[in-house]
Amino acid sequence: MPVKYYQPTTPGRRHAGVLSDPLTKKSPEKSLTRGKNSRAGRNAQGKITVRHRGGGAKRLWREVDFKRQKFGLQAKVAAIEYDPNRTANLALLVYSDGTKSYILAPAGLKVGDKVISSQQAVEIKLGNRLPLKYIPAGIQVHDVELTPGRGGSLVRSAGSWATVMSSEAGLVRLKLPSGEIRRVTDAAMATVGQVGNIDHSNVRLGKAGRRRHMGFRPSVRGKAMNPVDHPHGGGEGHNPIGLKHPKTPWGKPALGVPTRRRQKASNRLILSRRPKRNQD
Length: 280
Prior knowledge:
The protein is mainly β. It folds into 2 domains: about 5-30 and about 60-200, Roll (SH3 type barrels), CATH 2.30.30.30; about 220-270, Ribosomal protein L2, domain 3 (Irregular). The chain is built from 2 helices and 17 strands. The protein has helices spanning about 10-15, 210-215; strands spanning about 5, 15-20, 35, 60, 75-80, 90-95, 100-105, 115, 130, 140, 145, 150-155, 160-170, 170-175, 180-185, 190, 270. The strands form 5 sheets. A 7-stranded antiparallel β-sheet has the order 9-16-10-13-14-15-17, with no helix packed on it. The relative contact order is 0.14.
């Protein structure tokens, strides 16, 4: 799905791009949607836990089926739809018994294709869902379960995939998009293929207004503040942060600092952590 660029008829159009339209249905399936209140970065107590959120266009929530527990029933892809709540597109499935549901649309899935979810070995085909123990090494998968029956929780963003590396003693070794290598129980379900909407990360918004429509509010750099407002603040003119490590406005180390608990039970399943990236 290539990115489309317009003629620079306005300053906001000059650097902006949009995804060329691969969608086959504009309005969502009414039976699979519900209202969604804007939380604006606040938790159940009303306290802001994520800064710089608020406003934006009103959205409907699409009920995505991450479990796909209609085992053995073949489903036909009726439409590929946009979802404003995630980076991936959705595929509308119509099962042979008439039931409809949404799934994450894999790259290359087309209207009219047929997919199936099964707890037994089935054809390794784009969009089919089956336990990891039946998926050969080298196959790309997404929407992977961590706990069997709980639904997919790994590898769900646009363009991402995990690679099945090997299987032994009831555990399957996966290489995740971050580069982390971890083991997952072989009874966990996964969908064959790569998540679609691959060019999502290549879109340039072009102007601040598009960012505001997405529910993001402006953010000010810490080094542009006064010392009373941020640990990075102060100094005459342009200055470095002047500290060993970057910090949050409240003095907690930030950017590249490990946040995972040292004694988490699943640490034994992680064979190799993701490689560190330079913080430029």
